[in-house]
Amino acid sequence: MSDAPRIVVLPGDGIGPEIVDAARRLLDSLGEFEYDERLVGGCSIDAHGIALTEEVLEACRAADAVLLGAVGGPKWDTTDPEAPRPEQGLLGLRKGMGLYANLRPVRPSPALVGSSPLREERIAGTDLLVVRELTGGIYFGDSGREGDAAHDTCSYTAAEIERIARTAFEAARRRAGSSGRDPRVTSVDKANVLETSRLWREVVTGIAPEYGDVALDHLLVDNAAMQLVSRPADFDVIVTENLFGDILSDEAAMLTGSLGMLPSASLGADGAPGLFEPVHGSAPDIAGRGVANPLATFLSVAMMLRHGLERPGEAARIEAAVDAVLAQGLRTPDLAAGTLATPRMPDVPAEIEAGTAEMTDAVLAALGA
Ligand code: IPM
Ligand code: MG
C-alpha cells in the first residue's frame, strides 16, 4: 500500500467540479495523493434521492482529509419541508464527521486591497480568523412545521461551548507565535436577549483564566457586525455560535473584495479527518464556463495541508503563490468586476482577465511546479 494521503474529493454542484479539478492539479504538482471521488449535494440527490449517503459519509470518516467544492443550485431549491435539499449533505458531513470547529481566516491579499468595498486605510492590516461553532445551535436543534406555524430551536451545552472556546484561544496563541502580535479573542453573542448566549458568555469567561496570555472581550452580535466594517484591522480571533458565525463570516469575507477568496477548514477531534472547502458556494450562474475563481479552493488546500496533513511548508508556498499571481495582475471575472474600470497607478500591473485554467497555470508556475 502506498502511504500517499487518502483524500475524499467531493466536487458537488455548480462550479464545484471545476474548482476541485483545479485543486487536484495543484495537489498533483506537490506530490502523491490518492483520491476517492464521491457525490454529495444536488448530484447525490439526482443519483440516490438524498444529499449524502451513508457510504459516502463512511468513506469521509475513513479518509485522511476531505476536500469539498460546493453544493446547491436552483434545480434543487424548494420550500417543501419533505423534499431533499443539497445543503443537507453539508450539514450531514459536519454532524456525521463531528466537525465542530470551522476556521475562516480573512486576510486580504495585498494586491486586492483596492477591490475591498472599504477604503484602503480602513482595510490595511486586516488579518483575522472567524472560529465558528459548526455542529450545534439553531442549525441542529428541533425544528418543524405545524400548519401555518414553524419553529427552529437553538440550544447549546456548556461542553459544546467550552471546546470551541478552547479552539479559539489556542488559535489565538498559535497566530501570535507566528505574527508576533498580542493574541486576542473576541467572543460574539446576543447575551442581552438569548439564554444560550448567556451560557456562552459564562463558559467562555470561565475558561479564560487558563489562557491568561490571551486578551478576551465580548461583543453583542449586532455591534460586532458594525465593528467588523468600521475597524476590521483591530480583530484577531472571533469566536461565535453557528448562525452568527455563518453571517459574520460572509461579512468578513467581503472585506477582502470577493467572497471568491475565502477558504475554510472544518475540524473535529484530534486526529479525525477535517473537511476543507471554499466559502463561496456553487455559483450556478457561471458553472461550466471555465471562469470560476479557484483561489479560495487553493487556499483551502493550503489549510488542508496545514491542519489536516501536517505539511505546513507546502501550505505556506501555496499561499505565497496565490499572492504572487494576484500581484502579477491576474483576475478571474469575480475579482475584476468593478476594478478593471478603476484608473491604475503606473506601478500597478494592468489587470489580466483569467479563467480557471489560466489562474491554475499561473499558480503552478509561481510554485515552480
Ligand atoms: C456556509 C454555508 C452553509 C451554512 C449552507 C450552504 C448550509 O452558508 O458554509 O457558510 O449555512 O453553514
Ligand atoms: Mg454561509
Question: How would you sum up this structure, described in words?
Answer:
- The model is unreliable at 338-346 (pLDDT under 50).
- With 369 residues, the protein is α/β, with parallel strands linked by helices.
- Helix content is 40%, strand content 18%.
- The longest helix is centred in the middle third of the chain and has 22 residues, at 158-179.
- It has 13 helices and 14 strands.
- Bound molecules: 3-isopropylmalic acid (IPM) and magnesium ion.
Which keywords apply here?
369 residues, 14 strands, binds 3-isopropylmalic acid, alpha/beta, two-stranded antiparallel ribbon, single chain, 10-stranded mixed beta sheet, binds magnesium ion
Count of discrete alpha- or pi-helical segments spanning 4 or more residues = 13
**Could you give the distance between the termini?**
26 Å
Largest sheet, spatial ordering of strands: 2-1-3-12-11-4-5-10-8-9
Biggest sheet architecture? 10 strands, mixed
Q: How would you describe the shape?
A: globular
* Poorly predicted tracts of residues: 338-346
